[in-house]
Amino acid sequence: MTTATTTTTSDRAADDHFLDAPKAEDLASLLINKERPPKPSALSASLTFGWRTVLKIKHVPEQLFDVTAFPIMMVLMYTYLFGGALAGSTSEYIQFLLPGILTMSVVMVTMYTGVAINTDISKGVFDRFRTLPIWRPAPMVGYLLGDVLRYVLASAVMLTVGMIIGYRPDGGPLGVLLGVALLVIFAFSFSWVWTMFGLMLRSEKSVMGVSMMVIFPLTFLSNVFVDPKTMPGWLQAFVNNSPVTHVATGVRELMAGEWPAADIAWSLGWSAFFVIVFGAWTMRLYNRK
Amino acid sequence: MSDALGSDALGPIGRTVTMTGRRIRISARDIDAVITSLLLPLMLMAVFIYLFGGAIDTGTAYVTYVVPGVLVLCAAFGGSTTAIGVTEDMKGGIIDRFRSLGVGGTSILAGHVVASTLRNLLSTALVLGAALLIGFRPDASPAGWLAAAGLLTAFVVTISWLSTAVGLLARTPEAASGFSFFMVFLPYPSSAFVPIDTMPGWLHGFAEHQPVTPMIESLRGLLLAEPVGNEPWVALAWCAGILTVSVAASAALFRVRSR
Question: Which residues cross the membrane (chain B) (predicted)?
């Protein structure tokens, strides 16, 4: 009898508990008293990730060394140590060198995009991004948009130092802006190469190593420092067709107040190539990761 | 090795030889460092000869002008990497082990320096071989070659001792590696790559009177059989001065650090 009574009591308790349990709809109405927010647009999501990249710069200011100190050292060293020997005078050489070094330093900075992606992958935060209901390429585009600020900052620093030591762009503010715009477009496009390597390679060190192996020959074997006419014939063939040469010439002439249509076309053509080929490859890797 | 080190039969020279052997074996295993110490001077030489050579007027073939500077840069960079090895030893606790075996600081530090000198003379010879392949044509007499080799050896020994002092001063290998960057940069404001008279006037004073310039000018003169004046003596005076300070500083720092 005791057993029966106990059973009856427990059944009743279970029924009461069942009756008291709130329904899912009731909970939802309590918790969500307004409509679900709309899915963020592609632009909004990309800008958010771009802002994240900017905040990372704020928290790790050492990464700005390559944007500021290194290019300044390069421009001072080449102008004052080699300018007289290469162009007859330092004041003459700075007119040729500064747009070239500007191109070189911004192109070198592009590799940090790949490093940042690789770091995020190794930390696991990347998996979190992929679960979010956002436009698929937003994290990638965000990295690149954040880096655009870095490119603009590098350009501003270099131009300021250049002006102090005697650089005078004949193209005026408009020529300078057009030159920087061409450079930033190219750098943004070229960064897709490193996003691909950032996804492909296993460690940050590997990404840095591969980047250096590509960037150093590409920037040095160009017309950044000297006119290719003074180089051996076999080297001229490579230098004259290097994307960095086209960009450096484009930037140099735009800042000098000229309109180098062919070099602008080549620079934009290379930019399109990098986005189409490496952008597509990056997204393929990203979707499979 | 411990038995050999501990035995009284092995004098200070024997212990130094053992320590040198140890450092050479460690260097041989560090493939990255070996490649860097060879590739950096070779790359710089190629960049200056092929990229800038045609644009720089030195009154002679640019390869002839630049190679002595590259040899000094190679020796300076190679010698400066000793700092990293010394710092790693001081940090790793191996020094206490050696001290317990009765090995004095002189043998330990001299081992680093001798190994560095041998390593760098080899890498400098390889760089010189590469220079000969790409068109460097020295006119030196046997005496000139001997004098050039002697000067370069004195320079490597000096930089290695200076680097040893820096290695004892630095607390981490990363900090010590900064010294090698300084040593790579030092030949730039000198006559290594371009004639000093092409530089701005305010740079002349430093470029003409820094320790690397007389060494480069001496090597250039000796290898090309040109008059060198008193440049070799100035270079040796610099070496003697830096060496004296470096050895004294190394001894004092070693006593402090291994106390």
Answer: 31-53, 65-87, 108-134, 146-169, 176-196, 233-254
